[in-house]
Amino acid sequence: LQKELLKYKQEARNLQGIKCITFQDALQQRLAQQDASVLQLKQELLRANMDKEELHNQNIDLQRKVEERNRLLAEYKKELGQKDRHLQQHQTKLDEILRQLSEASYQQVDLERELEHKEALLAQCMKREAEE
After folding, report:
1. How far apart are the first and last CA of the chain?
2. Residue 98 CA to chain centroid, in angstroms?
3. pLDDT tens digits for 64-79?
4. Which pLDDT tens digit goes with each residue over 8-65?
């Protein structure tokens, strides 16, 4: 019985050793999988950080372009305002010239009527003189 007990104890130790080795192998395999997962996550994180940096740089570039366009827009608005003022000044001068031209036309019409009237009077006077 004692020999058998020793034999079973030895078998149990062997089985426990095999079990430990199998357990260690499983742990090592699990650890290797976790290391691979961690490595993959690190790579994805690195890619995400690179993408984030690229987007940040693009954002800075776009902001610079927007600022440049806003500056140009402000300049164009300023130039347009100046041109509007010049146009208003020229429009005022044109209106004044048109008013003066209209007055001159009325005066010309009045002078032509007066001339026609005086010519008619002159013609009458000359006709009377000729008759006398």
Report:
1. 188
2. 45
3. 999 999 999 999 999 9
4. 988 888 877 666 667 677 788 899 999 999 999 999 999 999 999 999 999 999 999 9
Q: Give Dmax over CA atoms of the chain in angstroms.
A: 188
Write out the two tokens for 17. 């050793």
Question: Alpha helix locations (H) across the chain?
Answer: 2-131
User: Alpha-carbon distance 73 to 61, whole Å?
Assistant: 18
CA distance 83 to 90: 10
Structure token digits, residue 117: 């009237």
What separation in angstroms does the CA of 104 have from each of 17, 107, 109, 125, 131?
Answer: 127, 5, 9, 31, 40
What backbone phi and psi angles, to 5 degrees, belong to 91?
Answer: -65, -40
**Tokens matching residue 32:** 């290797």
